[in-house]
Amino acid sequence: MKKLFKSTAMAVLAALTVGTSMSALAHKVGIVDMQTIYAQVPQTAAIEKTLQSEFAERRQELEKLQGDIRFETEKFQREGTVMSDEQKQELRAKIQGMQKQLMEKGRPLEQEIKRRQNQELGKLQQTIVAAIQEVAKEGDFDEVKVKDGTIYFNPSEVTDLSEDVIDAVSKK
């Protein structure tokens, strides 16, 4: 009788353990492709458009300066053989001065553009993360992973939530 009781108790304990581990295996995982999300949400294009208009005037100024440098360089190449040494020296100095001016204006502008871009993309990232959390909660997912950081996933076992996230972010 004791033997029967022990074996029954062991069987119940084993069944509970297997039941617990089976429920632990029923882990619902989703995956998101951040590159696809950033590429397809309308906010990315809006950020790009905003930054282009914000820095358009300064970019045009630099493009004009680049055009002037190109023109003067071509002029030097075309007419250098007929120029006096003094004229060559003056033109070289003019080109070097314009190149220095381009670098002095170009670097700060590039840094400012990157800073603003990071600022705007940071805001968008917060919106995307909130949308991922919202979609995951609605779909009762236990975990959501980023596709770029995942070496392998079984598409039949893992749900790609990217399109749902794109839809959720696009509505905001």
Written account of the structure:
- There is one protein chain.
- With 172 residues, the chain is mainly alpha-helical.
- The chain has one domain (5-171): 2-Layer Sandwich (Protein Binding, DinI Protein, Chain A).
- Helix content is 77%, strand content 6%.
- A three-stranded parallel sheet has the order 2-1-3, covered by helices on one side.
- The longest helix has 54 residues, at 85-138.
- InterPro entries: Chaperone_Skp, Skp_dom_sf.
Relevant terms:
mainly alpha, 77% helix, 3 strands, 172 residues, Protein Binding, DinI Protein, Chain A, three-stranded parallel beta sheet, elongated, signal, 5 helices, Molecular chaperone
Mean pLDDT: 84
Using DSSP, what is the number of strands? 3
Class inferred from helices and paired strands: mainly alpha
- Helix-strand sequence: HEHHHEEH
What is the CA-atom radius of gyration, in angstroms? Answer: 31 Å
InterPro entries: Chaperone_Skp, Skp_dom_sf
GO molecular function, one term: unfolded protein binding
Family: Belongs to the Skp family.
GO biological process, one term: protein stabilization
Write the layout of secondary structure elements.
Layout: H1 2-25, E1 29-32, H2 34-40, H3 42-79, H4 85-138, E2 143-146, E3 158-160, H5 162-170
Parallel strand pairs: 1-2, 1-3
Helix pairs in contact: 2-5, 3-4, 4-5
Protein name: Molecular chaperone
Signal peptide: 1-26
GO cellular component, one term: cytosol
